[in-house]
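@channel sequence for tomorrow's demo:
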Amino acid sequence: MTKQERLEKEKERYRSLEAFDTGLRANGIRFLAGVDEVGRGPLAGPVTCACVVLPADSGLLGVDDSKKLTDRRRRILSERILETALAYGFGEQPPEVIDRINILEATKAAMREAVREADEMLRARTGQSLDLVVIDAVHVEGLGFPQRAVVRGDSTSLSVAAASVIAKVHRDDEMIALAEKFPGYGFEKNKGYGTRAHYEGLNRQGPSPVHRRTFLRSRGSYPRTSSD
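structure tokens (generated this afternoon):
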């Protein structure tokens, strides 16, 4: 694919994602927030959520579902999103909370935290509050704002896709830091997911304080996988 072809593809993808948000703004929504999470499946580390409020016609070419982007591309886009956003916020819940209340409820708690932080920033910058929160697939009780759950929201809404990007980079950086504190599991590469290196670390030295006990097998050795 040539550089020009890649650019045209990014423009087409941007128009598609932005069209969904524009449709919502056409109904009188001015401050639209997108929310997404990362880290529901790993064996270790927090579940992390982000909330992003973008201006209309943000021009954020290249933004997409974070899973479709390389680490380098995500990091470049994350900086652009944070610079462009009217407001943003992060929320997370640690392994001990995940173990106590389950991953779904912990994710919702992190989402409430991210939305609250973004709304505080928006009010500080504009004097206005959020009009609508678009969330990837999940309905969050007690959110405090009108909301809309959209299945595959990170592939449908530009705001949700932007949230998926900054949430991923935020959590990845935290897992890299945890790799230094708790070596031997390969957190810097696997980000807490169940790779071969991770399971080998568990077999060798047992779980760390940042492992989710409810996600680990209760007895015997941990399974081995075919790749890192």
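heads up for whoever presents: The beta strands are 32-38, 47-53, 87-93, 132-136, 147-150.
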